[in-house]
Amino acid sequence: MTHPLNAATRFVARWPQSIGLLLVCAVFSASTGGCNSSGSDGIVLGHYASMTGSEATFGQSTNNGIQLAIDEINQAGGVNGKKVRVITYDDKGDAREAGTAVTRLVTRDKVVAVLGEVASGLSLVGAPVCQENGVPMVSPSSTNPTVTKVGDKIFRVCFIDPFQGFVCAKFARENERVKASKAGILYDQQAPYAVGLQEEFAKAFKKLGGEIVSTQTYQAGDPDFSAQLTAIRASNPDVIFIPGYYTDVGNIAIQVRKLGIKVPLLGGDGWDSDKLGKIGGEAINGSFYSNHYSHEDPDPRVQSFIKKYKERFGDTPDGLAALGYDAARIVCEAIGKAGSLKGDDIAAQLAKTKDFNGVTGKISIDADRNAVKPAVMLEMKGGQPTYVSTIAP
Amino acid sequence: MADFAQTLMTALAVGSLYALIALGYTMVYGILKFINFAHSDIVVLGAWLSFTMAQRLLPMLGLDPHNPATTPPLWVGEVILLASMAFCSLIGFAIERLAYKPLRKAPRLNVLITAIGVSLLLQNVGQLNFVFGPSPQKMPALLPTWELLRVSLPSANGNRDVVVGLVDVVIIVTSAVLMIALEYLVFRTKTGTAMRAVSFDIDASALMGIPVDRVVSFTFVLGSALAAAAGFLYALKYPGLNQPAHATWVLLGLKAFVAAVIGGIGNVRGAVLGGFVIAFVEQFGAFYLSSNYRDVYVFALLIAILLVRPSGLLGSTVREKV
User: Across the interface, which of A224, A260, A282 has its CB nearest the CB of B238?
Assistant: First the structure.
């Protein structure tokens, strides 16, 4: 029951926008093949990631995993007979760039779903944009709980920090090589990932009867950690928890050993990169971190994924590649089941994901749009991560 | 006691780096009265050039650059240091000639904005794949990981070691040598006298027959060489090098600039003093107070000093500027 005059005013009000839209279409049709590129020519997914910068291996691995999954799906006939395509933008690990990249994906490229980011801080930048535009976003590997709290369109296929913090604390208390009763913490005070994870670790560690003897902070990219490490050394911890990203952790490890601190270091999935061993060298060996999967898992599904990945990209996939692979397959499955390209329909199907057989384990999405699954503990040996144990939720 | 001594050691090494970089800011300001924002990018260039050369040179000597256990003979480090200083001097010279000299008579704001432009250009060119690339890299070890001194000192919670590594000593000694050389050059040579004259009054110096353009160029060459040395030493101490456009480098330059201001901008000795003051405040603040506010201490000190002594610690109305 719209009054004709009302409708007319509304049209006039919208008119300038339509003109603008037409112009935008005209400008971009050459490069993207039409304004709604998700139309007849296939399904377009967006991916924003740190392809360069201090966390470059995060983006590159995830992107490789996604490409592998998409190619497999296309070879098997695509989703509902349509080919899938991924547009990837580099955010350089920078919050401003991430915001631009996601806005471009949802408003200009009109992707049906967004994959990304690895770093929680950057997922928290992209999530509100996706939520506002009604485009579902699936983060392959952001573990900070607040990421999916942004709204009902935001999902993840990895476990969250309360669990990861618990896993690290339990390992620190109970593993016979660590058996820590006193822990020191050094974390990046500007990364939501590190801030959240250290809180959860401290909580769980105290609950299990341990004591946090020193908590120090740094900022991503800081060159010198001597003052903080000297303070941590003065409190005689049995283990040092460093929930940071691999470039910083490698640098920290070198300075830890230089100060003559011999206790093991412990961290989360932010350590997961082949660069960790390259930057940290000898200093990082004998330290542990929690991760989403181990490439030593004998499961045939995991081994076949590793074989395919190696054939195509030449190296062993890390946990982020595996999560990228799983995230892309879950999104495509949800689009297939939804039977439409509407954000609401896809989100509804994503929320129903149950016992999805991924290479990072069986994935079920819970009511908070998080995945519930076990974690593995890895040890750095000779610059390579090796499997130690699995800890279930 | 052990912790105090260890923190002191770190502060000395970090302070030497700040001082070396601050000298470049202060010399350019002294002569041309503008802040050369591109100066911190010369430090980056110095560090990354050292990395590139080490990466190429070590395999030629039959060494694996990724193996920290095999270190080349000491002369390799010296060659890399000198080559890096020479190359950065050339770049500094070129920047002054191409970007700043045409603006010699323009309002100072124009030069300032140009400096920011040059800085952005260097950062982003450095990130190109065929230059240094967009990823962090590991600097090959050029020095053996010797510990020159490891003494156990009593402190709360039992005895702890104070470790003095070869790297720290090399940084402090190299910086000291360079700073003494600069002091000699500025205050004891004819070129230095010309620099001080230009700094005092650029027009009068020109009337007195001092080749102003040559002196300005020389100042840039000198500042860039010191910046390159700082970059090289930085890469030795912190081998995980961040990519050229990373915010770390900007912060490093900013702190060195604060050091120059605290010491009294335009004053060579002030820059050195400022470098050490900043490093001490930063390191001791982080250790004894809280590491959360590490950068806050530095910038709070800047505000405090500017309130009490607006011209800096060593700055005065009849200051000797270079």
Answer: A224
